[in-house]
Specification:
By secondary structure, the protein is an all-alpha fold. It folds into 2 domains: 214 residues, no CATH class; 220 residues, no CATH class. It contains 20 helices and no strands.
Length: 436
């Protein structure tokens, strides 16, 4: 079991690196083709769709996959539950999203009605895709899922290039339609990789009830985590303007591009925790992961301070230069939050999901309060600062609890040791297939 999980994370890591390259290249083309105002409108559209997806994603995909893996249900009865749940919730969310687009004058004046309808309908396919992704990931089919994501991102990039080549420009309408088609493509690919299943199968109501109850706290935790990453953008759109949202959302996106690289050690080592029964050794492993990430993050941030501002302006142009300051703050916040994820994952692994959810809700509320105050005072830099501060406090609170409960010294968490460095080298060599 632990070996399969580790292999899954390795597949995920390499697929993320490939998607990272495509994402950077695609974003450069899109941003330069649209300009500040049009990219701001596009950012608003994607933000609304993203929020609708977060609020509607009940985590039934991975929850149903868990019941299949545990033997409490079978794929033929749980997959239809996932499919129809996503379809039903999507059909409710779609008209709400369409109404939000239509009442925003910037969107309704710059995007055709038929395109707005497509974007709203895309919510249905987006939710179905996310539910199916969770199901496939829960079954351990990481390699297949990586291929699907890579194909979707690659086709989207290809369509963007073709549209620019033939039309000579990239319009908002064209980009929204391309996003719709790429989502639809990935959904179809998921159906192809799954075994043939009868979607008309009879529902097991008792099992369905278990699924919804089991996924409740996980949904709250994951929803709050996702919303916490969006609240600053929501408030930037509300307090500032749509152009500022475009610049700020690009800074957010760029700051998140480093996560697959920074998290690589965590991705390789963290599954090991799940297979450890010895509490002492389990804590030792968590401390080593935290220690390694902290020291890598220090080095990474020092390098970022000198390189990222120039790379950001070089890629996206001088008209987005106002995004550099929030970018640097957000990168620091992202580095800090990576440490929080190690501790949060540990607590989730030992069954403390409710505690982690409560922490997340508290930080979410704090982020809203700080963002509301600081955005009005300092603009985009205030939004980034509010997010970074909430991440810092979340990490400090959870770190204090972890150290107190487990009698862990701060030295073991922050000061690098020779044994920790050797562990990293050996684990990476083993999991990536190298041998002495």
């Amino acid at each position: 079991m632990a070996i399969n999980i580790t292999k899954g994370f390795i597949h995920t890591l390499f697929s993320r690196v490939l998607l990272l390259a495509i994402s950077v290249f695609s974003s450069v083309i899109v941003v330069r083709a649209l300009g500040v105002e049009s990219y701001g409108i596009y950012s608003y559209v994607t933000l609304v769709i993203g929020l609708a997806t977060i609020l509607s994603n009940l985590r039934l995909g991975p929850t149903n996959a868990y019941f299949v893996s545990s033997g409490e249900g079978n794929i033929s009865e749980l997959f239809p539950l996932t499919f129809y749940s996503a379809l039903g919730i999507g059909l409710i969310a779609a008209p709400i999203v369409m109404w939000i687009f239509l009442i925003n004058s910037k969107v309704s004046e710059n995007i055709a009605i038929i395109t707005i309808v497509l974007a709203a309908c895309g919510i249905v396919f987006q939710l179905m895709r996310e539910y199916m992704f969770g199901f496939v990931r829960g079954l351990g089919w990481f390699g297949k899922l990586g291929v699907v994501k890579f194909a979707g991102a690659g086709v989207r990039l290809l369509m963007v290039i073709i549209l620019i080549g033939f039309a000579g420009k990239l319009s908002l309408n064209g980009l929204v339609i391309i996003d719709f088609l790429s989502i639809l493509l990935m959904l179809l690919l998921v159906f192809i990789i799954l075994p043939k299943i009868n979607l008309g199968a009879t529902f097991n109501l008792e099992l369905a009830k278990k699924v919804y109850v089991y996924g409740g706290w996980t949904f709250v935790y994951m929803m709050v985590l996702a919303l916490n990453g969006k609240v600053d953008q929501m408030l930037v759109a509300y307090f500032l303007n749509i152009e500022s949202l475009g610049i700020y959302s690009l800074a957010v996106k760029f700051s998140l591009l480093i996560w697959p690289i920074i998290e690589s050690v965590q991705i390789v080592l963290l599954p090991k925790i799940a297979s450890i029964d010895d509490k002492t050794y389990q804590l030792k492993m968590v401390c080593e992961i935290f220690n390694v990430l902290f020291n890598l993050l220090i080095i990474g941030y020092l390098v970022s301070i000198f390189l990222l501002p120039y790379i950001f302006i070089l890629l996206y142009g001088a008209e987005f230069k106002d995004g550099v300051q929030p970018l640097m703050i957000l990168v620091g916040g992202s580095f800090i939050y990576s440490l929080h994820k190690v501790l949060a994952t540990y607590y989730v692994a030992i069954g403390e999901v409710r505690m982690v959810s409560n922490y997340s809700i508290a930080i979410f509320i704090l982020n809203i309060v700080l963002s509301t105050v600081l955005i009005q005072m300092y603009g985009m830099a205030g939004a980034a600062s509010a997010t970074a501060i909430s991440y810092l406090l979340a990490t400090m609170w959870m770190l204090k609890r972890f150290a107190k409960e487990n009698v862990v010294s701060m030295k073991s968490l922050f000061v690098p040791s020779k044994s920790t460095m050797m562990l990293v080298a050996n684990r990476l060599r083993s999991n990536l297939g190298f041998r002495k």
